[in-house]
Amino acid sequence: ACELNMTAAHFSPVGSILLTTLLVFISLDTSISFQLAMMSKGAAAEVANFAVRQSPASTTFVTNRACPFAQKAWIALEVCQAPFEMKEVSLYGTNGKPDWFLELNPAGTVPVLECFGGAVVYPDSELILEQICDGAVEGGSVLKTDDDEMEKLVQDFRSELAAMLPVAKAVVLGNKGERDELWEILKRMDSKVVEPWLCGDKVTIADCAVFPFLWRLENEFGLDDCPKLKSWLSTCEKEEAFRKTIQSGWWWWW
Question: Is the pTM of this model over 0.85?
Answer without folding.
Answer: no
